[in-house]
């Protein structure tokens, strides 16, 4: 079911089964419920889920990031398969960038598999640049691109 309108809100424990189901469909190395629970315990971690405005029950996407001093690190971004290509990932990231900017964050960083062209293009479309390559970063030996969005030099305009 495609959602007419959707919004981000914080993850609750009740959301975990749905989140884990999506996680297993979309990631090569999916997080477990324990990974998400551990994030809920960290004061600097935010886990936001995107749900439909009508029922607030249907999760279409989510994002996990850390806010630490002047840096924001994005750890997980996912959109469930039926909701791809609708601009949801861009919408989530724009909200996080705006929020981080308001909190005085200087840069947003993340790591992405070199083979993940959809994600690399998504981040580049928002102004992220590839700032480093980390050899054999992932457990299957794949390299990572470290990508960075600087919030201090440029005015953020989406
Ligand atoms: C990557 C992902 C989050 C994109 O979600 P999405 O909601 O479909 O993306 P959007 O609709 O917001 O697309 C925004 C931009 O991303 C890029 N993009 C998204 N999907 C793409 C694809 N399949 N191929 C190429 N570029 C793509 C495009 O630049 C697009 O802009 P455009 O529509 O103007 O061309 C989604 O495919 C996903 O969940 N993948 C699996 C998990 C993952 O890889 N997460 C990132 C880990 S770092």
Keywords:
globular; alpha+beta; seven-stranded mixed β-sheet; Aminopeptidase; binds coenzyme A; single chain; 158 residues
Give a brief description.
With 158 residues, the chain is an alpha+beta fold. Helices cover 28% and strands 33% of the residues.
Structure, explained:
- This protein is α+β, with helices and mostly antiparallel strands and 158 residues long.
- It has a domain at 6-111: 3-Layer(aba) Sandwich (Aminopeptidase).
- 28% of the residues lie in helices and 33% in strands.
- A 7-stranded mixed sheet has the order 1-2-3-4-5-7-6, sandwiched between helices.
- A hairpin with a 6-residue loop joins strand 2 and strand 3.
- The longest helix is centred in the middle third of the chain and has 15 residues, at 88-102.
- 26% of the residues are buried.
- The structure holds coenzyme A.
- Coenzyme A is lined by residues 26-27, 77-79, 84-90, 112, 116-119, 121-122, 125.
Task: Describe the SSE topology.
Elements: E1 6-10, H1 16-26, H2 33-41, E2 45-52, E3 59-68, E4 71-79, H3 88-102, E5 107-113, H4 117-125, E6 129-134, E7 144-150
Parallel strand pairs: 4-5
Antiparallel strand pairs: 1-2, 2-3, 3-4, 5-7, 6-7
The structure holds coenzyme A.
Coenzyme A is lined by residues 26-27, 77-79, 84-90, 112, 116-119, 121-122, 125.
């Amino acid at each position: 079911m495609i959602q007419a309108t959707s919004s981000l809100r914080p993850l609750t424990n009740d959301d975990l089964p749905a989140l884990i189901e999506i996680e297993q469909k979309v990631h090569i190395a999916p997080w477990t419920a324990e990974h998400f629970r551990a994030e809920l315990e960290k004061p600097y971690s935010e886990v936001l889920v995107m749900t439909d405005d009508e029922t607030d029950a249907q999760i279409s996407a989510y994002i996990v990031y850390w806010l630490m001093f002047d840096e924001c690190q994005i750890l997980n971004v996912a959109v469930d398969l039926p909701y791809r290509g609708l601009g949801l990932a861009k919408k989530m990231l724009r909200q996080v960038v705006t929020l981080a900017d308001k909190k005085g964050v200087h840069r947003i960083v993340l790591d992405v598999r070199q083979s993940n062209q959809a994600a690399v293009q998504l981040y580049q479309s928002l102004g992220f640049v590839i700032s480093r390559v980390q050899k054999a970063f992932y457990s299957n030996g794949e390299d990572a691109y470290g990508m960075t969005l600087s919030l201090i030099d440029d005015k953020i305009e989406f």
